[in-house]
Amino acid sequence: MSLLESVKKLSNEYAKETVAVRRQLHAHPELSYQEFDTARLVAEKLTSFGLKPQEGVARTGVVALIEGKNPSKRVIALRADLDALPIHEANNVSYKSQNPGVMHACGHDVHTSSLLGTAKILNEVKTQFEGSVKLIFQPGEEKNPGGASYMIKEGALENPRPLSIIGQHVMPLLPVGKIGFREGMYMASSDEIYLKIIGKGGHGATPELTIDPVVIAATIIIALQQVISRNASPKQPTVLTFGRIIGEGATNIIPDEVNIAGTFRALNEVWRQSGLAKIKKMAESMAEGMGRK
Q1: Most Cβ neighbours (<10 Å): which of 13, 35, 76, 143?
Q2: d(CA 54, CA 156)
Q3: Contact 37/28 with Cβ under 8 angstroms?
């Protein structure tokens, strides 16, 4: 039986087991750098496959190695992420998140379970291929500066060093059974942006006695879209999104401050730095012009 035939046979054989692992992970999501149970499950599964996982890399990361024939001839790495997002799950499924306010909404449960299934298959067919496959289960993908940087600092890409890394990511828009590849850049940088608008709170019936941070914040959010529409080249993909706004006032009370959080994504490093500088300058100058910083 050829290697391809062996992989297809085992994929069908272990499909239900992989789905079960995914649902188990989905029901028990953990936030960035808190993936202790997730990492423990990964290590237990890898051990049951006959592998020797290295645990505790970058706190909750896991690394393992599958050696085929002539293991030093070529080394590639396969990577998955472990963490979930601080989102309340509203789905009504049997494997719904049991951790209130935490959900695998970005598909990391799929990534992890898929890599575990892949590890089991590759370890069973390792006599049919040359080289080695390094398995990397990364924590903290959703929280800057990202678990990848910490794992690299702790030597996850050494002994042996892979020639290339493949990182799978789910894409719901693709039909089931299809995968996508693209040469060059595909995933954008992701900078987190935090703005605090400090005003002067007071009663909503006497706004002239206040410096309203809600109005200032709303104006800044709308104006900052011009950084994209009037500064970025239409040929250069870039996105600025604000997804969190907190102003602890009331229906008739203007708060003292408003906090805003968002992300800025770009595919060009020169524009990335320029865009971030423009966002900072515009937000500060607008706040100052409207009465606060």
Answers
A1: 35
A2: 10
A3: yes
Confidence (pTM): 0.83
How far apart CA 67 and CA 69 sit, in angstroms, is: 7
CA distance 35 to 38: 5
Residues 6 or more apart whose Cβ sits within 8 Å of residue 115: 78, 79, 80, 135, 137, 168
Distance from C-alpha of 192 to C-alpha of 242, rounded to nearest angstrom: 10
pLDDT per position as a tens digit, 13-35: 999 999 999 999 999 999 999 99
The four Cα atoms 17, 18, 20, 22 give a dihedral, to 10 degrees, of 170
Q: How far is CA 263 from CA 144, 157, 196, 238, in A?
A: 11, 28, 15, 11
End-to-end CA distance of the chain: 69
Strand order in the sheet with 132-138: 54-57, 61-67, 132-138, 75-81, 164-167
Sites in the chain below the pLDDT cut of 70: 292-293
pLDDT tens sequence across 228-251: 999 999 988 999 999 999 999 999
pLDDT at 292: 60
Give the torsion through C-alpha atoms of 17, 23, 24, 26, to 10 deg. Answer: 150
To the nearest 10°, report the CA torsion of 69, 71, 74, 76.
Answer: 100
